[in-house]
Amino acid sequence: MTSNRWFSLQLQTSPENAENAGAFLHSLEAQGVQIEDTQILFDESEDATLVAREKPLITGYFEIQSPAHLEDLRASTNELPFEAESKWEEIQTEDWATKWRENFPPLHIGPFLIVPTWEESPASEGQTVLRLDPGLAFGTGQHPTTHLCLQLLAQELADKPNVSLLDVGCGSGILSLAAAKLGAHVVASDLDIWCVEATQENAEINGVSDNIEAKLVADLDWVKSPFPFVIANLMSDLLIRLSTDLARSTEAGGTLVVSGISSPRANDVQAALEKVGFTVKEKREREGDTRGDGWTERWSAFVFTRNA
Q1: What is the C-alpha separation between 82 and 185, in angstroms, rounded?
Q2: Could you read off the pLDDT of 8-17 as tens digits, one per residue?
Q3: Are residues 175 and 301 in the same domain?
Q4: Rounded CA separation 164/134 (Å)
Q5: Packing angle between helix 174-181 and helix 193-205, nearest 10 degrees?
Q6: What's the CATH code of the domain at 64?
Q7: 133: nearest Cα among 212, 179, 194, 215
Q8: What range defines the domain where residue 87 resides?
Q9: What would the DSSP string read from start to end of 35-53?
Q10: I need a surface site. Which of 34, 97, 152, 175 has the fewest CB within 10 A?
Q11: Is residue 98 part of a domain?
């Protein structure tokens, strides 16, 4: 047995014994201890509620140095000092930093071909190639909301060459890249340094660094002059909270594209933006994943015009 073999010990117990179980695993010199005492309940939107587990799950992670080490650990857990169900499992170690790439193939969306930086995929005539390494940032084009935004960007920018565009919550920069490739001058903002860095790096990879300015900022208080085009792929509650700022940041007669909206929340977002001076130009929907209960997600995107 080599030192890179790992095992987990799972203890399922009562809420009253959860801390005792965690302390017990620490006493065995676990390299890490995870306490799962809540679970997530999703409704038919992007909203979720945390509820207490009836039986918390406490997991310890152990790097095994020798067969004798594992034997001693197992012996230590034959009689627990509290009531719990226990289970040992060997953990199959993998290169998680790169394994996720298997689920990021080249993707065709409207006029765009999205190609991960580690792949080679020749574009067809008329396609705009976006080479992307999302790193730790959201945005590969696979999520329905990103897909919808890319389609609407291509449509709405077709007659707006050289437009100034604000990308609110830029993530990996995929929407900023698409807009810049179509001729826009982009300001991309995010409150996460990983997203700002990913956007800057992807802009350089795609040769559009001169057309994208990435800013590490929260909210929109920094915007002094409105933009003729704004895009925001954010969750519904955040779009609603930012509605007044989005109106202030979009010039009269300008375009706002929003997504990140689960269809059950679409009316709420539409009402909030209409209240601050936007008019719906178009609404689109796209199905997402099917959950374990058989319910299929559905996502919405809007194009709004800012009233004069």
Answers
A1: 63
A2: 999 999 999 9
A3: yes
A4: 24
A5: 30
A6: 3.30.70.120
A7: 194
A8: 5-93
A9: EEEEEEEE-SSS-EEEEEE
A10: 97
A11: no
